[in-house]
Every structure is written in C-alpha cells, then in structure tokens.
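Postdoc handover notes: sequence design on the structure in folder B. Input tokens:
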C-alpha cells in the first residue's frame, strides 16, 4: 500500500511540474510587461559579464503592444519585440542618443544595445529578468526598478 501511495504522489508531482510548463512558457511574455526593469549587469562584448555603472541609468519597459522602451545610459531608445515561449525577437532599434560625459557610459550604452538586439531567449522571475544570446550565453541581467 505504501508503494501505491508513493507512486500516486510521484505521478501527481510529475503532472504539477511538467504539465504546467507550457502554461508558464505561454505567460512568460506577459510577465515581463508587469514592471520596469533596471540593468544590473551586461556582457561587455568580450564574453565577460560586468556590473552596470551606477552613474548611468539603463532601463527597459516591455509594453503589451510589442514595443519596449527605456533609458540607454546617455539617451532613450525604443524597440519592437515579440515573444514565443521563452524566445524573444528584438528589432527596429530607434535611439535618441545624447552626448554624455561620465567615463564609460557611452561604451556601456553601446554594449547594452548590442546585447539587447542580440537577445533571443529570456527567463523571468519576481527578482530578475535574464536575457540570453543564440549560443545560450547570458547577455543581460535586470532587476525590478525601484
């Protein structure tokens, strides 16, 4: 009798975890629209993740209409995006760039925009949004904006 109970519990656990995964993937694109995200770290172009500069606000807000926009460090930007499951396609970057003088901000902005447009997958939780390139390498890490 104990084995039957264990088998039923295992089957129930399997159904809860694996049968709900398609629903989680389907709603992932909606979850990213529920708040504004602030950049924490990014790939600097050499494959190394580096912390975002504290003196340069970089943010993104995904809207349900397929447009994402935010601050890029020196200026503002907007992109079109689509999601399917955990996949994301970003296109049509429009940049309103301003000249800025703090050291490293323009370099960070350039790397960020390259990473953003090269992102093909994402994972989202209550505490972070991570974006990955086609090779599976982490490119961007965001946290909810305060």
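Designed sequence:
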């Amino acid at each position: 009798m104990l084995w039957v109970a264990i088998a039923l519990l295992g089957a129930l656990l399997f159904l809860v975890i694996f049968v709900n995964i398609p629903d989680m993937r389907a709603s992932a694109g909606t979850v990213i629209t529920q708040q504004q995200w602030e950049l924490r770290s990014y790939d600097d172009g050499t494959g190394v993740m580096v912390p975002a500069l504290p003196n340069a606000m970089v943010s993104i807000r995904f809207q349900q209409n397929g447009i994402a926009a935010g601050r890029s460090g020196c200026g503002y930007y907007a992109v079109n995006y689509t999601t399917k499951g955990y996949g994301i396609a970003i296109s049509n970057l429009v940049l309103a760039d301003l000249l800025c003088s703090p050291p490293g901000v323009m370099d960070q902005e350039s790397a960020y925009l390259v990473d953003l447009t090269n992102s093909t997958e994402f994972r989202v939780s209550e505490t972070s949004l991570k974006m990955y390139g086609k090779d599976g390498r982490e490119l961007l890490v965001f946290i909810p904006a305060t």
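Context for whoever picks this up: Residues 7-26 have pLDDT under 50 and may be disordered. Don't rerun without checking with the PI first.
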